[in-house]
Amino acid sequence: GSLREIWPGTLFVLEAEGCDRGPPVRNMIIYRIPTNHHTNHDIQETIVDHDYHQENHPQHHPKRKSKRQLLIYNAIAVRSDTLQEIVSLGLPTGMVVPNYLHRCCAAVWKSRFP
């Protein structure tokens, strides 16, 4: 399925086929945690293109970029293009697995975002 925004800038849903052991269709909810300007809870992520920097700028320092945090509810293993779309919203930092039938895809997310 495709990622749909259901609350501007904050709440997104993705409907996709479930795993063999789980429900036939599942909805993954992505909550983009609002920025708290007083405590500055955005995450600093280091963006590095290693091949480019080693060849062209060996002394270049990696660029740091502020990213919003995402809470993933009912994680679904997704294609790489869909994952890139999700990561463009922020960095997954939390995951809720509603019950044992939904654990089939949680390991994929946990390995990618420990």
What can you see in these coordinates?
The chain is α+β, with helices and mostly antiparallel strands and 114 residues long. Helices cover 19% and strands 36% of the residues. It contains 3 helices and 7 strands; from the N terminus they run ββββαββαβα. The chain has helices at residues 50-56, 80-87, 106-112, and strands at residues 3-7, 11-17, 25-32, 43-47, 63-67, 69-73, 91-96. The strands form 2 sheets. Strands 1-2-3-6-7 form a 5-stranded mixed beta sheet, with helices on one face. The radius of gyration is 16 Å and the shape is globular. Mean pLDDT is 77; it is low at 39-64.
Secondary-structure map with pairings?
Elements lengths: L2 E5 L3 E7 L7 E8 L10 E5 L2 H7 L6 E5 L1 E5 L6 H8 L3 E6 L9 H7 L2
Parallel strand pairs: 6-7
Antiparallel strand pairs: 1-2, 2-3, 3-6, 4-5
